[in-house]
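Give me structure tokens for this 369-residue protein.
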Amino acid sequence: MPAPEALVVGGGIVGAACGRALAHRGVTVTIVEAGPKAGAATQAAAGMLAPFAEALPEDPLLSFSVRARDFYRELAPQLKDETGIDIGLWTEGILQVAFSEEEVTAAKGRIAWQRQSGFMADWLTPDDLRERAPGIAPGALGAELAQEDGALEPVPLRDALLDSAESRGAELVRGERVEEILIEDGVVSGVRTTATRLECGALVLAAGCWSGRIQGLPRPVSVEPIRGQMAALDWPPGAPRIIAYGGGGYVVFRGGEALAGSTMEHVGFDPSVTSEGVNGILDVARGLFPGLSESAVRRTWAGLRPGTPDGRPMLGPDPEVPNLWYATGHGRNGILLAGITGEVLAQLFMGDEIEYDLQPLDPGRFWTG
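Here you go.
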């Protein structure tokens, strides 16, 4: 069998999105997926589409992130038609709840600049908030509502992306881990996996927080794991579904459960759950949504997010190896940015014109002056 034009290292949500987008453009693709990993980010994620959760006016990725959110309105029905898989897209808004006058002032300031920038945001008074989300703590002084934000289900999204890619001819190699990238005469010629050697015309590195551990890279890749612990509880009977931030954490309704999260811990490749971490997020979640105080904890887990030194992903070509591409380091925004990452990577690969300023994502920013 001839070598594929592109080999994607990583079958998580970003690698799956890249593989699909390339395959849909007629590129021959092989996606190498190592199989289940403890701490893998896709299956651990809450699935929020929240570009405004931590955004600042000067954020160079804000418009890109908003477009990434809106892209799922186009992608979800396409995937349903192609694969029959419903990715659970939910776009009913996200609340940022204020519990102090300082938080009220900050929220109203965010709403002002967001509106001035052409984005939709509203302030909910305490009465408005109680009507929309009656389960929120009675001490809340109001909330910012990002009306068009929402969530989806990460695992069905990944599965749908992979199925869609395979339907367009992509080959999925499961259960093999890429151990080394092979570079000959200044270009990638293939990879060495735990089972064999695979040739390729180009390589897309989309292995999440494990990206920098692969041998043979032309230079160190600064993508490090950031642990996020989470818990799932029973959703209070009769309570309307919501997504809300507040008190340093969040609560997400999904599949009849309340997902509570999350920590930000630099502990290396340790996906374990700690009593301190879980108790902390449960305290925050129950303070935000008191009805959870009577809810049983169904399970706890942790995911390893791929973080970079400046908190922005690496998306684009290597500065020296012409057929090496990066799609990694998405941190807390992997679900939000996955779909658009695949599209942009495929556009770059095909030499198409790009409508976004990708300089903030240029992988070479870490290696060139």
